[in-house]
Amino acid sequence: MRDLLQMRIALSFFLIACLLACQRSADQEWPNPAPALWEVHNADGQLEGWLFGTVHALPDGVEWRTPRLDSALAQTEKLVVEVADLNDSSAIADEFARLSRSDRPLPPLEERVPQQDRAAITRLITQAGSSDASWTHVKSWGAALILANATRQNSDSSNGVDRWLLRQHPDAMELEGAAQQFHMFDNMSRAEQSHLLISVAQEAAAAPALRDASLKAWLTGDLRVLKNQSSQGLLANPQLRETLLTKRNRNWVDKLDTAFPTFGPLFIAVGAGHMIGADGLPQALSKEGYVIKRIQ
What we know:
Order of helices and strands: HEEHEHHHHEHHHHHEHE
Pfam families: TraB_PrgY_gumN
Strand order of the largest sheet: 4-3-5-2-1-6
Protein name: TraB/GumN family protein
Helix content: 40-55%
Radius of gyration: 19 Å
Signal peptide: 1-26
Number of helices: 12
Keywords: Signal
Shape: globular
Strand content: 5-15%
InterPro entries: TraB/PrgY/GumN_fam, YbaP-like
C-alpha cells in the first residue's frame, strides 16, 4: 500500500483527466515536441516569466524539451510548481493516509455511487488487483486516487516534466504543497467524491488510442484538442471543475501577483489542465492586466 500512496502521481491525473492518463507503450513514435509555452509581461512591458503546462508522468522515450523552452529556463530565476518536495514520498504518504482514513467503517465502494455506475466501480477494483474489502476504512476520494494510480501502465513519474524541472531548479516556490492538495479532496462533498470515483473508472476504461491522442496533443501544443478533452469526464462536473481547477487558478493568480515583483523571471510549471480555456491561467492573468503571449 505504501507504494500506492505516492499520491502526487495520482493527484495530477485529475487535473485534465484524459491528458494525464498516458498509458501506452514506450516503443511507439511520438511527434516532434512543441508543447504550449507563454510569456508573461507586466503592463509596463517588463518580462515577468513564462507559463508552461506539465504532464506529471510520461512513458519512456517521450522527448518534450525544445530550444525555446530551454532558453526560457536558462533565463528564469525561480521555478514555480504545485508541489516542490516531490521526493519526500514518506511524508506525502503519511499525510495522505491520515486524511483519507475513516475511523468508522464505510459502505462498499460500489454502494457509494449510483446504481448505474456500480458495475464500472467493480471493474475498476478488479483492474487494480484489489478487492472491495480493502476500502472499508478509506474515504471515497482516497480510494479514487489510489485506484487511479494503481491502474496506470507504462507511465513513470520519474519521467514527469515537473520532476525534471525540479532537478534543474531545486529551490522552487510551491503554490500549494501536497498537504493542501489532500485537504482540498478531503473537503469535497459526498456527491463530489462519488463523481470522482466514477470518473476514475471511466478513465481507466478509456481506449488507449484516446490517451495517445491526448499526449500527442500536449506534445504538439494543440490547445483545441486539449480544451475539448478538459470539458469532458471529471471536469465536466461544475462543482468539481470549480474545486479542482477554477478556484485554484484564482488562488494562484493572487500568489503570482505577489511573487512577480519579488523574484526575477518566474517559470510557472503546473498541470496542463490549468492552462486551458477561459478559466485557465493565461486568461486569468490577462484579466489582471498582464500581457500574455504564446511563444510556442
